[in-house]
Amino acid sequence: MRESGCHTLMFGVESPSQTVLDAHRKRTTVEGIQAAYSLARGMGFRTLAHFMIGLTGEDEPVKEEYPDAVPESPDSETDEQRETAPSGTLTATDGEPAVQVADETPEEATLAAREAGLVAARELAETPAFDRWAAGALSGGNSGGFETDDGRRTNWVFVVAALMLAAILSAQLAYHFRSELVRFIPAVAGVFEVLDVQIPSSARSDLVSIEASDLQVDNARGLFVLNALLHNRADYAQAMPALELTLIDAADKPVARRVMKAAEYLPPGSNLTSFPAKAEIPVRMWIDARGLGASGYRLYIFYP
User: Fold this and answer.
1) Interatomic CA distance for residues 264 and 243, integer angstroms
2) Distance of CA 272 to CAs 34, 277, 293, Å?
3) How far apart are the C-alpha atoms of 275 and 209, rounded to whole Å?
4) Using CA atoms, how far apart are residues 131 and 25, in angstroms rounded to an integer?
5) Which of 84, 178, 270, 285 is positioned for an S-S bond with 226, CB 3.0–4.6 A?
6) What span, in angstroms and rounded, lies between the C-alpha atoms of 184 and 204?
7) Which residues, in sequence order, are CB contacts of 34 under 8 Å at separation 6+?
8) Average pLDDT of span 210-238
9) What is the pLDDT of residues 65-106, one digit of tens each?
10) 10: exposed, middle or buried (C-beta count within 10 Å: 0-12, 13-18, 19+)?
């Protein structure tokens, strides 16, 4: 503060009577005020005091504790007395010091402030932008600058509960993504086998597609013939997808819809249980749509 240009400190003393200070619950002492002035004086600051005249409790017996500290009128102190009054002194109306503060060295002033329960500002200034909330973090503690009744003892109940919840969450994620987990870490499959947990094949609709399709009429049988080519773009085998066929009329309105599983669109005798990686599967089906007035179709591949 001195280096930044501060030269005067003004204190709200309010009353130099310990009786009045206690009555108004100021939570300070005359000795503490004197120690503060000593500390400021020792650091080279000019000091001024502010009083509240006429506080409740300032009766005649109390005034006897500081007869020279209560001025009879605001103008009783001359400008010359104000200028010549020594810094660090509580000045009375006649120019005489009401509370004398002897010149002290900075070390003596700091010691007096500590004995009075004050905190030396010079010590806090060694830590720029000191923040009590960050005191614990700066000192490596975990109390945030405040000690609890139990000190720094860790509550192991909450630690164990947090670890158990984390383990349960990890198990749920592993079960939900077990197909992907086994694909990236094949050794995990043995764990699911021991636990009697089935591992379904991957089913990513964005990696399967219909490369080509058409719907023709078989006049000999009076049926429609659906031809399609399914493609799995994934680098790994996937589950067999489902197909949704929608027949539409000339006005592009649906007249019939059917969802077909792999067992319905694969050729008889096929032993495919999964869609091989980077593979293509041709599909050929006969559809009886007589009397529906169908003139077109839509074909959609998906995983239910």
Assistant:
1) 10
2) 96, 12, 35
3) 12
4) 27
5) 285
6) 16
7) 99, 101, 112, 116
8) 87
9) 554 443 343 343 444 444 444 444 444 444 444 444 456 666
10) exposed
Q: With beta carbons less than 8 A apart as the criterion, state whether 48 and 11 touch.
A: yes
pLDDT digits (tens, 9 = 90+) for 140-182: 555 554 555 554 556 888 899 999 999 999 999 988 888 888 8
Return phi, psi of residue 209, to 5°.
Answer: -155, 165
Cα of 200 vs its chain's centroid, Å: 38
Q: What is the rounded distance in angstroms from the CA atom of residue 21 to the CA atom of residue 13?
A: 9
| Structure tokens, 38 | 């000593």
Instruction: Give the rounded distance of the alpha carbon of 238 from its chain centre.
Output: 40
10 touches 49 (CB < 8 A): yes
> pTM, whole model, 2 decimals?
0.42
What is the SS3 assignment for 299? strand
Only one residue has tokens 């003139």, namely: 295
Both tokens assigned to 233: 């773009």
CB within 8 A of 99, min separation 6: which ones? 16, 30, 33, 34, 37, 69, 89, 90
Pick the CATH number of 205-302 from 3.30.1460.10, 2.60.40.3230, 2.160.10.10, 3.30.200.20: 2.60.40.3230
Contacts of 72 (CB under 8 A, 6+ apart): 93
Residue 133 makes CB contacts below 8 A (sequence gap 6+) with 144, 145
Radius of gyration of the chain (CA): 46
Please say whether the beta carbons of 299 and 244 come within 8 A: yes
From CA 275, how far away is CA 303, in angstroms rounded? 12
Q: Residue type at 262? A: A
Ordered by start, the domain boundaries in the chain are 8-118, 166-194, 205-302
According to DSSP, the β-strands at 46-51 and 8-14 are parallel
**In angstroms, rounded to a whole number, what is the distance separating the alpha carbons of residues 18 and 21?**
5
Instruction: Quickly list DSSP for 111-142.
Output: HHHHHTT---HHHHTTSTT--GGGHHHHTT-S
